[in-house]
Amino acid sequence: MSSKVYLASLMTKDPSFMLHYQYVKKRGSEYMKAVNLMIVIITLMHFSFLINQTAFDGEFSGLVMTINTILFLVAMITFATVRNAARKSKVTS
């Protein structure tokens, strides 16, 4: 049974399922935005470290560590904000 047929059969049995499905879908997209941002930040961290080690022989390790720390904090604050918003929307619904 395909997922569309299964979803359609669930919707006909329980109309409130569609509201729940839309809520989960919307909440999932918020998480995906945060996860995509974190993947981009991790990639930037790795490339900055790689370039520093290969091209500059580690001469700018302090600068790279500062940049990586700032990127890490941006990722954690973004994830915490999205998670807190999802928790608040779950409580109010």
What does this structure look like?
The chain is mostly helical and 93 residues long. It has a domain at 29-92. The chain has helices spanning 3-13, 16-55, 61-92. The longest helix is centred in the middle third of the chain and has 40 residues, at 16-55. The relative contact order is 0.10. Keywords: Membrane, Transmembrane, Transmembrane helix.
Low-confidence stretches: none
Radius of gyration: 21 Å
Class by alpha and beta content: mainly alpha
**Mean pLDDT across residues:** 77
Instruction: Supply the number of helical segments.
Output: 3
Total DSSP E strands: 0
- The string of secondary-structure elements, in order, is HHH
Specify the overall morphology. Answer: elongated
Distance between the termini: 31 Å
The main β sheet shows up as:
none
Strand content: under 5%
Helix % is over 70%
Transmembrane segments: 34-51, 63-82
Keywords: Membrane, Transmembrane, Transmembrane helix
